[in-house]
Design a protein that fits this description.
With about 170 residues, the protein is α+β, with helices and mostly antiparallel strands. The chain has helices spanning about 1-25, 30-50, 60-105, 135-145; strands at about 110-120, 120-130, 155-160.
């Protein structure tokens, strides 16, 4: 609808300009040529929508808008899901690095995996898999302090290394 108003405004502006020029050229020999040129310009402005590639004067505008809104909502949902996945991956990597730095104080202990549950930008639960001979209580105390979470939010799974004995 805005295109129609823009087109109408441009035609009216051309008519106004042509009438002003016509008033300034009182009984000049150039008056009939100026009128011819102004008439051609006005006619070109009138038929311009017929030759334009944009035929946006349709009654299905509401359907187009609603389908556009639906597509936009779907894309926003997809993008928010991707950002949540990316942020979870980042949090898991950061927590794994911090856990490895904390456990590095113990020579025979190693972090194998860290999985965090994050909701509303807060860590709700952290699952850590470790192997080796680790001091479980000491590591738990250090990590809960470092991450500012309760002991009930930290789930540690220890894999004991098997020693070969004959």
């Amino acid at each position: 609808m805005q295109g129609l108003f823009d087109w109408l405004a441009s035609v009216l502006a051309l008519l106004l300009c042509a009438s002003i020029v016509d008033m300034f050229l009182s009984e000049s020999p150039m008056k009939k040529y100026v009128r011819l040129a102004a008439g051609l310009v006005i006619m070109a402005a009138l038929v311009k929508p017929l030759f334009s590639a944009d035929w946006s004067f349709s009654f299905s505008n509401e359907r187009t808008v609603s389908s556009f809104e639906q597509e936009t909502k779907q894309l926003v949902e997809q993008l928010s899901g991707v950002s949540e996945l990316a942020s979870d991956t980042y949090v898991n990597q950061a927590l794994q690095q911090e856990a490895q730095a904390t456990v590095s104080a113990f020579s025979s202990c190693e972090v194998t995996a860290v999985e965090a549950e994050v909701a509303e930008e807060q860590v709700k639960q952290v699952d850590i898999e470790m192997k080796g001979q680790c001091l479980e209580q000491e590591i738990e105390r250090r990590l809960t302090e470092k991450w500012n979470i309760g002991a009930h939010q930290l789930n540690m799974v220890m894999e004991k290394e098997e020693t070969g004995g004959g």
